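A further point concerns the way the authors explain their paired sequence and structure data. An entry of this sort, consisting of the sequence and the corresponding backbone structure tokens, reads as follows:
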Amino acid sequence: QVQLVESGGGLVQSGGSLRLSCVVSGDYYNIGWFRQAPGKEREGVACMGQTLRSEFYGDSVKGRFTISRDNAKNTVYLQMNSLKPEDTAVYYCAAVVTSWWPVNSWEGYDHWGQGTQVTVSS
């Protein structure tokens, strides 16, 4: 059973930065970060496949957020820069474990972390 544990959320001022971490136990095909704000649908933020070159980002975060991975630590990161109040949400780390999906499909995520709150003040 793959488990994902996020950390690193918090309160930051507009224009600031945060780095989220996700410790992953087990193997997966793709891994991604999603977010959900109150009253809004869940949104794909960033994802990557088994190779570092296959990274994809949601339109609202392109150029500001970066997904990366440290295989030695079994950890995936989301570096968030130039944060805006509209980035406020619960951020979830998720993995595609059961069946392969193309990484840019944003589909197939069947294992989820508990989420971490990110709040950006104006």
In short: The mean pLDDT is 95.
